[in-house]
Amino acid sequence: MDFNVKRFAADAGTFLSRAVQFTEEKLGQAEKTELDAHLENLLVRAENTKQWTERIMKQTEVLLQPNPNVRLEEFVYEKLEKKAPTRMNNHELLGQSMIESGSEFGPGTAYGNALLKCGETQKQIGGAEREFIQSAAINFLTPFRNFLEGDFKTILKERKLLQVKRLDLDAAKTRLKKARMADARAAAEQELRMTQSEFDRQAEITRLLLEGVSSTHAHHLRCLSDFVEAQTTYYAQCYQYMVDLQKQLGSFPSSFSNNNQSSVSGGASISVPTIPVSASLPSVAAGGRGGSAAAAGGFNELRSSNGSRKARVLYDYDAASSSELSLLADEVITVSSVPGMDSDWLMGERGSQKGRVPITYLELLN
Fold it and tell me: What sign has the CA pseudo-torsion 20, 22, 23, 24?
């Protein structure tokens, strides 16, 4: 019992000593031992890493699940260590609606058949999205979360302990300054040596942990590469699904009976353009919007000859700047190649009007 009382009294005295030291430092009445510049820089870098990791995680979660209510529900299930109920995503819901409506109109009709094909494609995209979300959660979000809940919590714990050791050291320095008697001064010097040793040891432990943040950055870089790869796979799958669907829809008649035609005021029918695409995904990645049409031999021949050709406009295009030329579907314009121009573009002319036009909107005429 006496031992416990003495220990409690010692702990209370230590706590009071730290509180007094901390208060006097805040009031400018006591000196404070400063950490070396290298350690301070490591602390700042670790704090920045923590803040930006949290921010990237939050925005990634919003990207993967835009619905805040669903995110909250998933968070609650995760904390309860229960599996969240499986629900269809937006693409799958749209696909289901299209399939049901296509069945209602009848697969034997052009519209019903088209709805069924579109519905199946939307469900395929939904499945690809589900795989992407799962991959991103495992290979990207989980390592980031492990850093925040593991390594950084350890850093925080050791940093707080370093602050405690620093207060003990400065309190010992203060007592040494105030000691007058030889015995008291000797005891204060011994205490100072002990607290200095503990502070140095804790500073070294903290420094080693903080330097480990460099390894964290390297790990997160690998996770970032995995995330980009998952995105690339997802978008490539979606692109291929849509290319296949577009080809299937292209086999349908271009017009139906007058009852099935949509019209705008003035009796003009709405034209649904068909965008030419290539079967090669890498060409799209390399050439952007016009990468697929850039592979066509006719355009390459036009560039090499530096001449001009007639081209039919496949569908409407609104100019994005004064250097571009707006286009109307089915009109015929003159196009030519200009040295130094991006391979995705040609110079188009319509009477006195002239400007850049994207080659994906064009079909060269003989």
Answer: positive
CA atoms in the 13 A half-sphere facing the CB of 353: 11
In angstroms, the CA 359 to CA 363 distance is 8
Cα–Cα distances in Å, from 177 out to 26, 200, 310? 19, 21, 95
Q: Quick one: which H or E segment has residue 285?
A: helix 281-287
DSSP at 274:
-
Ordered strands of the 362-364 beta sheet: 353-358, 345-350, 332-336, 308-313, 362-364
Angle at which helix 110-136 crosses helix 213-250, to 10 degrees, equals 170
d(CA 167, CA 202): 12
DSSP label at 248?
Answer: H
Distances 60 to 74, 86, 201, 237, 254 between C-alpha atoms, Å: 15, 20, 39, 20, 42
* Cβ–Cβ < 8 Å for 112, 102: yes
What DSSP letter does each residue of 110-158 carry, written as one string?
Answer: HHHHHHHHHHHHHHHHHHHHHHHHHHHIIIIIHHHHHIIIIIHHHHHHH
Q: What is the pTM of this model?
A: 0.59
Q: What is the pLDDT of residues 267-315, one digit of tens each?
A: 333 333 444 443 334 333 333 333 333 335 677 888 777 788 899 998 8
CB 140 within 8 A of CB 58: no
- Measured torsion, CA atoms of residues 111, 117, 123, 128, in degrees rounded to the nearest 10: -140
Instruction: Check: CB of residue 339 under 8 Å from CB of residue 345.
Output: no
